[in-house]
Amino acid sequence: SDSLCRKYTVDMAQERPDLLLNEDLNVACLLIEFKRPSHLLNHDDYIQAISYRHELRKHMNKPIKVLVMGGGRSADFPDERREPDVEVASFADVIASARRSVDWQLSVQVGG
Fold this sequence. Notes:
- The protein is built from 3 helices and 6 strands.
- The chain is α/β, with parallel strands linked by helices.
- Strands 1-2-4-6 form a 4-stranded mixed β-sheet. A two-stranded parallel sheet has the order 3-5.
- It is globular, with a radius of gyration of 17 Å.
- The termini are far apart.
- 11% of the residues are buried.
């Protein structure tokens, strides 16, 4: 909505959250918090991501799933006591998954 665009638009890149909010066909939203590929995700990153979700819920009445992406997890990133619908992924995991998907699609096209 327009209120979200105004709320989260700033001039300085370092003041803007590194996130993507997207809506699927079921009207659910996915909020992706991006960290550097060299950054190990920690407890503060988790708190930051869920804080964005809490803030967005004040402006929209839709389910919001959260994905936190970085270079991996540090020891203090929560594994078990996370809020619902919070996932974590490394860039390496996402790239490997995409590679497997492309390889599978290519094998189906060649074999079919």
